[in-house]
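As the next step, I wrote out a protein sequence along with its fold in token form, included below for the reader:
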Amino acid sequence: MPVCPKCSQPDGVMKAGFVRGRQRYFCKGCAYHFTEAKPAVPERKRYQATLADVARAVGVASSTVSRALNGHADISPATRQAIQEAARQLDYHPNFLAQSLKRRETMTIGVVIPDIERPFFATAVSGIQDVATAAGYRVMICQSKESYEAEVSNVQALIANRVDGLLICHSRETENFDHVKEPARRGIPVVHFDRVCNEVNSAKVILDDRQGAFAITEHLIEQGCRRIAILAGPPSLLISRQRQAGYLGALRKHGLPTSEELCAHINFRTESAVAALDAWLALPEPPDAIFAINYTNAFDLLIALKQRGLRVPADMAIVGFGDEFMAMLIEPGLTTVDLHPFRIGQQAARLFLEQMTQKELFEPRTCIIPGELIIRQSSLKSRG
């Protein structure tokens, strides 16, 4: 039996049940109830070897260890080998945070994209890494999943981790850009790509959305299409406005009327694309072609038309914007515009490196990457 904590007498203490899983006691000598002390859980300490540990193991100064591990020529081969062996045995790893604080650079680029599962963004990140890795930079990738709140949180986390620069493609929901304005104001390099913000004086990499939309709409007109509908995105989205402008420009060039009933602004979700399709099919004169400014919605339309017993392209031509591997595998193959996302990522990373090199002399500029019209069976009405 334990000793009573009040009267310090071991005699007269008896068990008196349990309280919250712990044994309860009663001291008859002083009429005092108490519970057994909660056993202390030893704290698991995580220890990481330091330069000083390596120095003690070899019997040299910490500065000697630092110079040896950084390849300085003033360290003898024997000492260097001893230091490297000690570092290996102690599992020593450089403290990148300490190094970055010393040189005021982390050699890390923060990248924020809407969705890593989308082939366009995954390929753009691959292009960023291609250039960044060659320049000695690491890349930290965050995705917003098309959420404004997640995007803000991602940017704040990257800045808190002292990234040297921020490469960002905004979410569909983003209309307030204060979370990007503040890092830019503090001199942190910011590069926008694809979905950009004109409220920040930053370097930008954009697609030639207007020309690409013009080319693909003109292709439909050349195939004999006269009532061409457009499945656009939210009006607040710059790329949606640019692609719609290219579509309208092609109609005007060829003397075709524009119609509000043939323009649908959706949120890019499958159900909204199918709802727009059904509304068009219910018209007295349905469209003979649909231009989906997002290629994933073009896939939605192809599937929905098949389910409704309509033939593509004979009954309805379908084109998209943005190319991926599935576009050539689906039946019929999807006519679309290749956006060259790998080039976009590469150029975004190059603009960051230029800004890091030129510092205050860097003048933000906008680089335009032209798209490429890829014609497949989904739009070839004249051969359908």
Q: What stands out?
A: DSSP finds 13 helices and 15 strands in the chain. The radius of gyration is 32 Å. The longest helix spans residues 341-358. The chain has four domains: 1-42, 51-94, 106-207+341-369, 209-340+373-383.
